[in-house]
Design a protein that fits this description.
This protein has 4 helices and 5 strands. The chain has about 130 residues and is of the alpha+beta class. Strand 2 and strand 3 (about 65-75) form a beta hairpin. The radius of gyration is 14 Å and the shape is globular.
């Protein structure tokens, strides 16, 4: 079972998906959030062509020259997390969090996804990874 599922995340069952199987993760997400997870996934994949996708820490994780971002379904929302979010320019104030580096965006509804703004954050996160 995914680590996030053990913490009480909204899922449809307790099945275990093979490591790296993002489609299986999405299938386990509560139906009310599944479209949000898939839309964020597509946004990341389109915004960063060639990015590597897999399951790390029990959730979809995206990397290129290091970890870039992840997607995690929680109760009532989905988080698009950025590993170096504290270094990302966020003029519209989408990013939340107070950690040293990690920041996230909470998305409750499909309509909450601001494609252009979120894609810009993904591109900047990829560029930060390239610099290291």
């Amino acid at each position: 079972m995914y680590e996030s599922h053990r913490r009480g995340i909204a899922t449809t069952s307790d099945k275990t998906a093979p490591e790296g199987d993002v489609e299986a993760y999405i299938a386990e997400v509560d139906r009310s959030l599944r479209e949000v997870v898939e839309a964020l996934r597509q946004l990341v994949l389109k915004g960063a062509p060639g990015i590597e996708e897999g399951i790390k820490w029990g959730q979809p994780c995206y990397s290129r020259n290091g970890n870039i971002c992840n997607i995690s379904a929680d109760r009532g929302h989905v988080k698009l997390g950025f590993f170096k979010g504290g270094d990302i320019t966020d003029p519209e104030g989408h990013l939340e969090g107070t950690g040293k580096k990690m920041r996230h965006i909470k998305v409750r509804l499909l309509e909450d996804i601001q494609e252009e703004a979120f894609a810009a954050l993904v591109r900047e996160a990829v560029n930060l990874s390239r610099r290291e």
